[in-house]
Amino acid sequence: MKIAILNYHTIGGSGIVAYEIGRVMAEERGHEVHFVGLEPPFRLEENLHKNLHFHRIWIHEYPVFTYPPYTLALVSQLAEIIKIHNIDVIHSHYALPHAIAAILARDVSKRKVTCVTTLHGTDITIVGAHPAMKMITCYAIEKSDVVTAVSHFLKKETERIFNVCTGKIECVYNFINPRTFNPEMRSNKEDNSEKKIIMHISNLRPIKRPLYVIRIFHKMLKAKAMPMELWVIGDGPGKTDMMIMAEELSIQDKVKFLGVKHPVGPLIARADLMLIPSVTESFGMAALEAMACGVPVVATNTGGIPEVIEDGVSGLLFDLEDIDGAADKAISLLTDKTLSSRIREQGINVAFEKFDYIKIIEKYEKLYMG
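^ that's the sequence the OP posted. Answer follows.
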């Protein structure tokens, strides 16, 4: 098959999943994959596999346009790509603008192309649910040939918000690739029992509650259980506020902001704990990556996270506003070796059994073929 993939190139779970689907389809399944966008996917390597291609969308600015017309440029140039490369499938990640662009490009090209749309969360719960965008999001879902959601939580939310008929949306989980995340990476971890590394990975948007990361870590330090350090990986609007809060609490010397990193697997493997206090997560990619590396996770009991983590078995969950409870659970994982070992082992098992990448890629292949 010849597959075009549309996704946001910036750091985030949707872009990572889109890239991994394309990479596996090209390198392991033998399909021809074309990434299309303003920039290459975040993890796309410079030395591309022969089956992997990237097409940059060029935007021309005109005085009549107040803002650059990205969606129109994407539609027009994607239609050309469909015709030149005989694209069979367009896999859009996010309903807006990608699914709409795919549907229009298919119509403009006048070719028979299967439009697959994967919903990742904020495109439905925040952007799509807004009154100004609800009708166009609903249209994108209705006109797509196949629609998938990354969790049952998101599937049900989409059906509720947009009154989508039962059966239109299929749940297809995100997955983990053992090539980039695996427990063997922990063999390279420096064994320093004196200092524990607490990690948080996100784009530091409000929905990720970056300030809660600082507050929970501060609570952990006040418990004086052991020396600890917080590593923050990623970048975003919440970084400055995190730095200010860390200074106000006089813990700035114990918080490291590492920025955007790639590859991130070896860094995750060095952690003793992953902290995820999000308002909601449609899936929780950072949690799955940590579990695959044998790193215990403490996360909020919201959204799709309970579909990834079984509380008390493969990780520990806390209620949304329970900062004290989050700190207590994190400390218990750092101090109770039996608990930590059991959680690590179950986390690894879940990551590679429930979220096996081959099974999930095969599921996408079947959906592509109808």
